[in-house]
Write a structure and sequence with these properties.
18 helices, 5-stranded antiparallel beta sheet, about 500 residues, alpha+beta, 6-stranded antiparallel beta sheet, Serum Albumin, Chain A, Domain 1
Length: about 500
């Protein structure tokens, strides 16, 4: 797992790497769980109003960069669960970065993403992406030799080399030159947080997810509501079931704005337990009509903004002993803060954009959520929602999944679980089935092009604001253990550079 994350950070540098952070949900062979939060935190000099009237600086530039946590997270996983020496885990990524790899379709797509002229106009970026003065194209070999040298230092000296010393100084210098507030003390004081998982029962299974600041409670709350429909897996009722699931998702998103970093909020755990309770599921199901949608205020009485984010990588692994890790990591938006550290080749996150900003409404006039306002050392709310499924009967592992894709992660994970646990699909089919997305605000439901027209017509008649979208906004992975003890693994078919393997 750790070696894979390092390699993904080399090849998928546009969405993850050691300049970012994430979450890991771990199932030990004895069936106990850990939730490791190694996501970025706000610098000590950050404050609530820092992006008021300047929201753009939360997206790109020095102020958008939070304190990276990925390396501390990987260090924790290695020391707590690993068997191989640390340098052996880093070496494959060093080799890939130093020797190079071909520019594939996924990388090319993100090199064309938005305003990315900096990839060849900025000398610090051009060193990797336009070494001969012209931006690399499909099939060209890209090398990341500075990054390889950085990883070599980390392999030799350990993670401390990132959080202090020359690498730390160059990181802080790059951020502060770009107008940021990151300090050496911020890096030196970073540590992972071990948080409590959340669990529900669902049709003979135990589902375990991550508490806030992840969105595990949103996914689990929607599933707990869906469980109340005993026929939701029947194919002849697919259209109606899709309507019901969309409605369940809206209620989940309606509760999400009250979530934030539990270290900075009172009663967050109690609120999440209430979200995923059978009582809340019953109350919300009673409001759902099979004939029409509801007014937005009925799902979301406080009219809070649902923030969008994207990027991220997800990896799920399982072994024969029952050890399972479902890990999501990110630098937030593609290319993060648009800052690459000239000396080290590290691409830095723009995770400060995941906080809410007082008085800054979105395009629909919805105010942001105070639970997610900036505080020094605080972790912003995330859509990441890795889930692991065990059999209730004998506590053995059955299925694990997670996804990349920003705010659409929640609905992607939910639908994959529905496909496997209710519709009886295998892992590959569950990930290949077209998906919808509805996050309550804005008032629209997105459907991938492959959705059946009869389903879309049925939903439009019930008031869903249908919008067609191309597939590929989410990139999920999953592993399932079959009754004979063998494994079944798959990656989202939209992810050209992704795959599922069993060994």
């Amino acid at each position: 797992m750790v070696a894979t994350v390092f390699c993904v950070g080399v090849i998928g540098m546009y969405h993850s790497g050691i300049g970012g952070g994430g979450f890991a949900l771990i199932r030990s062979p004895n069936g106990t769980y850990d939730f490791v939060d190694f996501r970025e935190v706000a610098p000590a000099a950050a404050y609530e109003d820092m992006f008021v009237n300047d929201i753009e600086s939360s997206l790109h530039g020095g102020n958008s960069t939070a304190v990276p946590g990925e390396l501390r997270g990987l260090e924790y996983l290695s020391k707590t669960y690993g068997r191989l020496p640390w340098k052996h885990l880093v070496q494959p990524a060093i080799n890939v970065a130093r020797n190079g790899f071909p520019v594939g379709a996924d990388l090319l797509r993100y090199m064309d993403y938005g305003d990315t002229d900096f990839l060849y106009k900025d000398p610090a970026w051009a060193q990797d992406f336009a070494p001969n003065g012209t931006r690399l194209g499909a099939g060209d070999t890209i090398t990341r030799r500075r990054y390889a040298n950085t990883l070599h230092t980390i392999a030799k000296k350990g993670v401390a080399a990132f959080y202090s010393g020359n690498i730390a100084r160059s990181t802080v210098t790059a951020v502060q030159k770009a107008g940021g507030i990151l300090s050496l003390d911020d890096l030196a004081s970073y540590s992972v947080k071990i948080r409590e998982p959340l669990t529900i029962t669902y049709r003979g299974f135990k589902l375990t997810g991550c508490e806030a600041p992840s969105s595990g409670a949103v996914t689990l709350s929607a599933l707990k509501l869906i469980e109340r429909y005993g026929d939701i897996g029947r194919e002849e009722l697919l259209n109606l079931s899709t309507h019901r699931i969309i409605e369940a998702v809206k209620f989940g998103y309606g509760m999400r704005p009250n979530l934030g970093d539990p270290y900075f909020l009172n009663h967050t755990r109690e609120y999440q337990e209430e979200m995923i309770s059978a009582k809340t599921a019953a109350e919300n199901q009673a409001k759902i009509s099979d004939l029409h949608t509801l007014n937005s205020s009925e799902y979301d009485p406080k009219a809070f903004q649902s923030l969008d984010d994207d990027g991220t990588s997800h990896i799920t692994v399982a072994d024969d002993d029952g050890m399972v890790i479902s890990l999501t990591t990110t630098i937030n938006n593609p290319w993060g803060s648009y800052i690459i550290v000239p000396e080290t080749g590290i691409i830095l996150n723009n995770q400060m954009n995941d906080f809410s900003v007082p008085g800054t409404s979105n395009g629909f006039g919805y105010v942001p959520a105070p639970a997610n306002f900036i505080r020094p050392g605080k972790t912003p709310l995330s859509s990441m929602s890795p889930i692991i499924v065990d059999h209730l009967s004998n506590s053995s592992f059955y299925f694990a999944t997670g996804s990349a894709g920003g705010s659409r992660i929640i609905t992607a994970v939910l639908q994959i679980l529905w496909n496997v646990l209710d519709r009886g699909m295998n892992t590959s089919a569950a990930l290949s089935t077209p998906r919808f997305h509805d996050q309550l605000i804005p008032n629209q439901t997105l459907f991938e092009y492959a959705y059946d027209n009869s389903t879309i017509e049925f939903l439009a008649q019930r008031g869903h604001n249908v919008t067609w979208v191309a597939p590929g906004a989410t990139e999920a992975e999953a592993v399932r253990r079959l009754s004979n003890g063998s494994f079944e693994a798959a990656a989202d078919p939209n992810l050209i550079d992704g795959a599922g393997f069993t060994i």
